[in-house]
Amino acid sequence: MLTYHSSHPDGREYCRAEYNETDHWLHATWKGVVTTPDGQRAAAKMLQQLHLTQVPYLLNDNSQVLGPWFDSVDWLQHIWAPQATRLGLRYVAHVLQPHTEDDLGLLLQHNPFAGKFELQFFTNLADATTWLRDRQRLDAQRSPAPTLPAPSTATA
């Protein structure tokens, strides 16, 4: 299992991002206080994981974040998202930090990630994982069945 840990200088972990081999997605769990530089460093590590795993699914869990989330939308939109999209990211299930549902309304008025990947917000991890699994099922249904070569008509 490919895992990256991002920690504060005092050793407290604020982000763990791991490739979940069973579900075939990248799962990032953020916790505690996350500053802008912290968030950017950990998100950059996620790009490395996307490059190595080539998975189109990200489960981004902010349910354990304390205090204000780092001021990230502009950086994510212009720096991180284009790179993640080039690496094949297509779906992001984002579990909101508790009590930030009002912030969601502002973001949804103008989705800065439209055209890059499909982003859905959730208030709990169970709903987010269900949505990602549904995306995987839809992708599997849309994938064309492998074509077999046409039988040879040559005669000996």
In short:
The chain is of the alpha/beta class and 156 residues long. Helices cover 38% and strands 26% of the residues. It has a 6-stranded mixed sheet with strand order 1-2-3-4-5-6, with helices on both faces.
Task: Describe the 3D structure.
It comes from Hymenobacter bucti. With 156 residues, the chain is of the alpha/beta class. The chain has one domain: STAS domain (Transcription Regulator spoIIAA). 38% of the residues lie in helices and 26% in strands. The protein contains 4 helices and 6 strands, in the order βββαβαβαβα. It has helices at 36-53, 73-86, 101-109, 125-142; strands spanning 3-7, 13-20, 25-32, 57-65, 91-95, 118-122. A 6-stranded mixed sheet has the order 1-2-3-4-5-6, sandwiched between helices. Residues 150-156 have low confidence and may be disordered.
Keywords:
156 residues; alpha/beta; Transcription Regulator spoIIAA; 6-stranded mixed beta sheet; 4 helices; 6 strands; 26% strand; disordered C terminus; STAS/SEC14 domain-containing protein
